[in-house]
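can u pls check wat happens w/ magnesium ion
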Amino acid sequence: MIKSGKDTIFASKLIREGKLVAFPTETVYGLGANGLDAKAVARIFEVKKRPSFDPLILHIAAIDDLHTVFKRPVSPLIIRLAQKYWPGPLTIVSHCRKSIPDIVTSGLPTVAVRMPNHPVALKLIRQAGVPIAAPSANLFGRLSPTTPEHVKEQLTAVDYLIEGGRTNIGIESTIVSVCSDVIEIIRPGIITEAQIAADFPDVKVVSEYAAQIVNAPGQLKSHYSPNKPFYLIDELPSELPNYVGLILFNTMRLPAGANCKVNLLSQNGDMLESASNLFAALHGFENDSAIEKIYAMKVKDEGIGTAIMDRLNKAAYRFTSLMVND
Ligand code: TXA
Ligand code: MG
């Protein structure tokens, strides 16, 4: 059982000592270490059982701190993005300073940085006085945690877990790469391509996540995956027995005789509400021993639906070669 509580002063001391602290952000829980201490960061990979190194996000608590992590001078476009969306669910990737350890960036010339919109996370970073490197606090290839219980289920070798209830956004931040005067979206999230394009009409916005991999070594197709068969469906199958867990994004009438378990993420198709409930629904069905397979209705690949479909496709990736009725 890992030690947990609400003591950010204690947690920040642990961070400075090179220890690991799991903490809430507005998206998902993070597994944090001092981002300037290569040895501490190495423990993150050990505890998550990541088979290969994969670059991490540095979390900062003030826009001014961009200068301590990105190469100077920091581009005006990066400052504008930070001013528009921070604190918030946007991660910016750009050229990094030499002082950032290679283990944070996987040796890339760029680093990912975010200022989370969560009072506990911001307090922890301020009190620690260093950027905090943190991936999502799950085991490699498993679902991102949106509650302290999810963290406890998966990780044991964490020095402290800051309890902060349920995260309210529930899926990971949008990642943009800004290495020139173009904004490249490399992971979709709640801040959508359309929103960025509307907020920055003078800038070219492109999305790269369809192309996969090159820019984001961690963007494996199978990254978020439940531990039982998981299928995406376009319409409800005629038979829905009791060992099926069904995830719906809108109220729907079930076929006659259906006695599956349903997790309705939003009564009225609200995508933001659905995103915030998605991982908890998958966790719930994973932990329910009566459930043998999970179905999720597909959603429209637009706006926040794009971020939801990105996570669903990754979760279902290793099962897509199987038939729905297997
Ligand atoms: O909402 C979030 O972003 C959460 C919370 C904890 O902040 N964090 C999170 O971290 O989702 P993680 O490690 O699970 O995902 C970070 C992603 C990885 O896919 C990684 O490949 C990408 O960021 N990334 C990090 N540094 C990068 C870089 N220099 N270039 C491209 N992609 C990078
Ligand atoms: Mg992750």
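Residues 211-218, 322-326 have pLDDT under 50 and may be disordered.
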